[in-house]
Design brief:
InterPro entries: CT398_CC_hairpin, Oxidative_Scav/Glycosyltrans, Zf-RING_7. By secondary structure, the protein is mostly helical. The chain contains 5 helices and 4 strands, in the order ααααββαββ. The protein is 77% helix and 5% strand. The structure holds zinc ion.
Amino acid sequence: MKAEPAAQRRLLDLATIDTELTRVAHRRRTLPELAEIVEVEKGLQARRDAVVKVETTLGDLDRDTRRLETEIEQVRAREERDRKLLDAGTVGAKQTVDLQHELTSLARRRGVLEDELLEVMERHEAVEMDVAYARGQLAEAEQKLAEAQGRRDAVLADLDVVETRRSDERKRLASELPGELVSLYERIRANKGAGAALLRARRCEACRLELDRIAIAELRQALSDDVVRCPECGVILVRTGESGL
Ligand SMILES: [Zn+2]
């Protein structure tokens, strides 16, 4: 293939842009924030579960409290009714004894319920602290996640800007070069990762290998508009005054 030396040299600009675009794409995939976000999200679910668990326990204790308070209230009402009956003095001797028995057993029952209520309230207090702690841990993880996402988005936005600018430059540059040359460049790049490289001091800048004497002799015989390839890695070798030919 033939191409003007100037067009060949501009392939190096295309290669520089492609290198940067590759770097941007790599950066996008390997942002440390991505791993951080995955890590925080893992912890976040565990913390959400922890909050639900202690909130459920607290709800159960609330229900127990209400149940015990109601029961105590019912016992109290019964005691009051019994006492009023006794105080009124209108009941007979047998009923008086029955009422006194009932009052004793109601007092015992109320004592048991009140102890139970006290216990539930103590547990409630402890679990309230657990809930506050679990919510704090969750809020901390959520904040960490938001921060990591914010940093990720900022870096991605920067990368978008670079990518858009470089892609536009690339499009413009490629449109100004001979189509055949660009096609060859693209084909090599698809296979090798690089499409063109400078030959500097007899060394291919893509594979970093120094060309042997036979290869150098062949390059010396090639015309300046011949498109030549690196015998080692196959990229288009761009010759300039620095090539050492
Ligand atoms: Zn090479």
